[in-house]
Write a structure and sequence with these properties.
The chain is an alpha+beta fold. The protein folds into two domains: 4-45, no CATH class; 51-112, CPE0013-like (CPE0013-like fold), CATH 3.10.530.10. The protein contains two helices and ten strands, in the order E-E-E-H-E-E-E-E-H-E-E-E. It has helices spanning 34-44, 77-85, and strands at 4-6, 15-20, 25-28, 47-48, 51-57, 63-68, 72-73, 88-90, 98-100, 110-112. It has a five-stranded mixed sheet with strand order 8-5-6-10-9. The longest helix has 11 residues, at 34-44. The protein is elongated. The chain starts with a strand and ends with a strand. The protein binds iron/sulfur cluster. Residues 7, 9-10, 12-14, 30-32, 34-35, 38 line the site of iron/sulfur cluster.
Length: 116
């Protein structure tokens, strides 16, 4: 089990020492209880936002930035990147346009983050 983490919930970046079990971790070094929730999530169901770019044709730029609209389970991150890398869109696109819907049945879409 992981025994140290840096909490990324806020800019304080507390260095956390962890013992106990993933379901009942004993956490030291946290300045607030959100650090405990962060550790539980990281140990039992880690999630990540995915930010990347996809190719775009018909405009000035060659790529447009995209991201997952919410965090997805970390176990899908490489598979989602593979899907993203295979996509090409055509200009114009608008911030919020969905380029991948409900990736891996997570309920999360991948969306464009810039008008282009
Ligand atoms: S434990 Fe609390 S204060 Fe420390 S980084 Fe996490 S959220 Fe911020």
């Amino acid at each position: 089990m992981i025994n140290e983490l840096i909490c990324i919930t806020c800019p304080m970046g507390c260095r956390l020492s962890i013992s106990g079990t993933p379901e009942e971790p004993v956490v030291e070094g946290n300045k607030c209880k959100r650090g405990i929730a962060y550790v539980k999530d990281e140990l039992t169901n880690p999630t990540r936002m995915i930010c990347s770019t996809v190719k775009i044709s018909g405009g000035i730029h060659k790529v447009v930035p995209v991201k997952t609209a919410q965090a997805i389970p970390e176990k899908y991150k490489f598979e989602v990147m593979k899907l993203i890398n295979g996509i090409e869109v055509h200009s114009p696109v608008v911030m919020g346009d969905v380029i991948l819907e409900n990736v891996f049945d997570t309920g999360v879409n991948v969306v464009v983050t810039r008008n282009m």
